[in-house]
Structures are given as C-alpha cells and as structure tokens.
Amino acid sequence: MVQSRVKALAKMENVAEILADPSLTFNFPSPEPLSTPILALNDVSFGYPGRPPLFKQVNLGLDMNSRVSLVGPNGVGKSTLLKVILGELEASAGHVSTNGRLRMGRFSQHHVDQLDLDRTPLEAFQLAYPNVKPVEIRAHLGSMGLGGNLALQKMRTLSGGQKSRVAFAQIMWQNPHVLLLDEPTNHLDLDAVEALIMAILNFDGGVLVISHDEHLVSSICEELWVAEPGRVYVYKAPFAEYRKQQLALAKKHGLQPLQPNGAPPAKGAGQPSGAPGSNR
C-alpha cells in the first residue's frame, strides 16, 4: 500500500466504532494482480454527432494502485468518459487499451434504480447467479453490511443507503480489478460514507471516482483528473488547491459553487452556461 494511503488510514482511527459494527462495513474482495499497464487511454476523443467534442486527445492511464478522482463541472463529459473506458461508447478517435484479463466494475445511481424492489437481495443474487449456494451469497451480502434479516427483506423496504449496498454487493461479486464509481455517496449516511472510504483505502485494486463529495475526494484521492470543455488532464496540485481555485472562479463570475458535501447550489444561484447534467 502506498505511503499516502497508509497515512490516510492512520488519520481515520476515529472510525473504529464503524469497523466494529458489521452492519456498517464494506469489505471489497481482493482481485488477483495484473501486470501493468492494465488500462490506458491513447489520444482518445469523443463527441456526439453534430456537437463539439466533449474531450480530445486524452492520454491517461490506470493501474491497480490508482486512486483517481475525476472532477469538473456538470456537462463536460465525466460520465461519458467512464462509458468510453468501459466500452459502452466507442471513441471518436484514439483507442482504449486494456489488459486482456482486466475486470472492471461500475457503480452509479442507475444501478440502484434498476433493482427489482419486489425481490430480496438474496433472491436478486440467486436469479443472477443460479449456481451459487445461498450460504455463499449470504456471506457476501453480510460483508457488505447486509447480514441477517436485511438479506431477506423486500428491497422496497430498504433505505436508500441499503439499496446502494445491494448494488455494490452485486458489482463486487465480479471481483473487479478496477472500480469506476459515479457519485457513490448519494443516499449514504455519514457512517456509511466513512465505511466506504475505509473500503476504498483498503481495496487492492484501482479506483476512479466521480464525486462532488469533498470529504470522499480528499480522503482517497492520490491523483486528480480535471474535466473541462474539450479536455481531461492531470491536475498537478492537491485537491484542496483545486477547490480553492474553483471557489475563486465562482466568486469572479458571481456563481455559487457546489457545497463541500456535494449539495447543489441554492435555488436561484447562477449556473455555468452550456452545462446540461446529461453529459456529466
């Protein structure tokens, strides 16, 4: 584990109570190691037909030690970049090269929204993996804080955070080498956010996260990718410096920035033009 991650874990001794409560923990399984590079973007560009490119000539990479936060205003293509990395969208130019054994897991609110609320977490797993013994599924769900009766409750009775845990559990069953997380703290309470941070810090694979949650980003980030209109690049300074820069720009243009916890600007506050949320 890299030194910065060791320091981050040391700073979080105050979450010992969370770790002691199995209902609050996330335990991500460790994938087998892969030789580097495991994923590289080579001169990647993408744009929808008839529109200017969202980003051009992106040259970035991930490995199993990566802890990357992808930041930037809504509408500049952050979620689109994840789809290009996953192969859900084809690059307009350039290519994404990956290790042939690479497994990637993606979490987003979409995965939570697609849960069948009339099934229990156990039933959903049994439908997806009919050859897996229920006792193995129950153990896996328990490692995600869904032990005991929670695994047997209809998902419509679960809280938003518990539904997120079900989605995480389904993704982590694939034992991915790289996690692509799109606003993973939505609907999580403070204890669950701390537990997620601990799980990411202890995870033996790579992580690329999109989040407006300043606490999450500052806790796990070892590299910052900044998305701006037409480009994505590595930001050479710490996240706190990036945040300070964005606050200064917002003040200059009379805008109200996102709150540190990712909350949107107050109603009526100005927004940057040309930033539709659909192209995050």
Feature tags:
280 residues, alpha/beta, Rossmann fold, 2 domains, six-stranded mixed β-sheet, three-stranded antiparallel β-sheet, 19% strand, disordered C terminus
Order of helices and strands: HHEEEHEEHHHHEHEHEEH
CATH architecture of the largest domain: 3-Layer(aba) Sandwich
Largest sheet: 6 strands, mixed
- Going by CATH, the homologous superfamily of the largest domain would be P-loop containing nucleotide triphosphate hydrolases
List the uncertain runs.
14-20, 266-278
The overall average pLDDT, rounded, is: 83
Distance between the termini: 31 Å
Residues in helices, as a percent range = 25-40%
Radius of gyration from the alpha-carbon trace, in angstroms: 19 Å
Overall 3D form: globular
Q: Find the structural class using helix and strand composition.
A: alpha/beta
**CATH-assigned fold name of the largest domain:** Rossmann fold
The helix count comes to 10
What's the domain count? 2
Number of strands: 9
CATH hierarchy, class of the largest domain: Alpha Beta
The percent range for strand residues is 15-25%
Give me the side-by-side strand order of the main sheet.
5-6-7-3-8-9
